Amino acid sequence: MAVVELTSDPTGLYLKAALGLLPVPRRPEALPDREIARRGLIIDRDHLARYDRVCGFRLSDTLPATYVHVLAFPLAMTLMSASDFPFPVVGLVHVANRITVRRPVDATQRIDLLVRAENLRSHDRGRVFDVVATAFADDENVWTGVSTYLSKNAPKGDASAKRDHPPMPAPTALWKMPARVGSDYAEVSGDHNPIHTSRIGARLFGFPRPIAHGMWSKARALAALEGRLPAAYTVDVAFKQPILLPARVGFSAAARTDGWEFRLDSKRPHLAGLVTPP
Hints:
This protein is α+β, with helices and mostly antiparallel strands. It has two domains: 1-154, Thiol Ester Dehydrase, Chain A, CATH 3.10.129; 163-278, Thiol Ester Dehydrase, Chain A (Roll). Helices cover 22% and strands 35% of the residues. The chain has helices spanning 13-19, 45-55, 67-80, 181-189, 194-197, 199-204, 214-224, and strands at residues 2-6, 34-41, 93-101, 111-123, 126-137, 140-152, 173-177, 233-239, 247-256, 259-265, 269-276. The protein has an eleven-stranded mixed beta sheet with strand order 1-2-4-5-6-3-8-11-10-9-7, covered by helices on one side. Helix 2 packs antiparallel against helix 4 (181-189). It is globular. The two termini are 27 Å apart. The relative contact order is 0.15.
């Protein structure tokens, strides 16, 4: 596998991604056999503090599990916006995310990141693949994230959003999500997808209003469990129906013998998550 080394965060990624929507003669059928790497990354404490505030974490030098995803995001975008990627990155749907924390990571440590794409497969609404990010500290694998993306081939307005859903569990907390959640998270995550920050951009992709980032929702849920999670764990989430901003959603969490189960719901399910041993 070829390795491309980055020495700084790339710029202009969403412009490059938008250009990927232009017609091309033929896209490759396979995922690129390439890994994007960035080594010796120094944590910006001010940036970490802003992220903590936006997502609801306590200010701490210990990196939240979802923060490393933000560090790896520019590498993932570099990979997915390349001309040899099978799908345009704009329009991909983030349907699931799994993070494994093998031990706490301190903000004083330098991080090495590696990102690759794998496991392209069929789905009842198109094709899905995984973007796998791995973080090392002191040459030890301390964190792994797997983001599953869907490239849809279903027509707009399909019936998936009209399904009947089972009754939602009684929430343990009600959260008010202002419209600025989309732009606030975009600023700290670097994910400036217009479906999260612009009413016009959201409408272009079939949403009446901007929608919350899925990874903000996951981070906010983990922040609600802060202080009750072990030092090492795996947290899986499935992203259900989008959260149209502004919104009020219910958060529910239940302890299990091996971890936690949690959800975000309103009239429809938005996120279902599970914390288990790594």
